[in-house]
Q: What sequence folds into this?
């Protein structure tokens, strides 16, 4: 039961991190969204989760700056690093608990705290992702970019076409009207 809660929390965190990275424009990503799943590799994942947390937070911060949105907090970086640290400590204590019986009680406490921070971190990622989605859905007239990341929006046609007779033609510098005319 406890193992299922740990795995469920880890999956939740990884799904939220992947969704957050998917909302970030490619130029602001330092990691592709699918790379978060490397965390599930035994032993390697203990270190990789730190990379996922820091790169996701940095990508979110860059995206908020790029969109000129005010970021709330540190994009979940502190909760994510706490979750990653608890995951690493919990893995070490779990191995140590096989040798020393009383360490099992400490492991139980750490698992509960790890799950709490994992859920908190996943919630912060969800809020940041939702803010980016809401901003992308908003009709922003000052945004010069369309659907694509780096392509400008097509030029708009003028509302009223001006007739040729609405303009005065000048042939040279001497033909310019004088001030006051």
A:
């Amino acid at each position: 039961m406890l193992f299922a809660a740990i795995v469920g929390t880890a999956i939740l965190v990884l799904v939220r991190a992947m969704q957050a990275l998917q909302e970030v424009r490619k130029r602001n990503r330092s990691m592709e969204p699918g790379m978060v799943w490397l965390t599930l590799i035994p032993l390697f994942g203990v270190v990789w989760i730190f990379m996922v947390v820091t790169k996701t937070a940095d990508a979110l911060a860059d995206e908020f700056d790029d969109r000129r949105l005010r970021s709330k907090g540190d994009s979940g970086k502190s909760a994510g690093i706490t979750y990653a640290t608890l995951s690493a400590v919990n893995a070490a204590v779990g191995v140590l608990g096989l040798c020393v019986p009383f360490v099992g009680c400490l492991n139980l406490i750490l698992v509960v705290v790890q799950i709490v921070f994992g859920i908190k971190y996943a919630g912060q990622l969800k809020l940041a992702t939702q803010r980016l989605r809401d901003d992308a859905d908003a009709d922003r007239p000052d945004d010069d970019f369309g659907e694509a990341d780096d392509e400008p929006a097509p030029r708009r046609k003028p509302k009223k076409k001006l007739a040729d007779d609405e303009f005065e033609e000048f042939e040279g510098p001497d033909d310019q009207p004088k001030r006051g005319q």
Observations:
- The first helix runs from residue 2 to 23.
- The chain has one domain: 2-133.
- The CA atoms of residues 23 and 133 lie 7 Å apart.
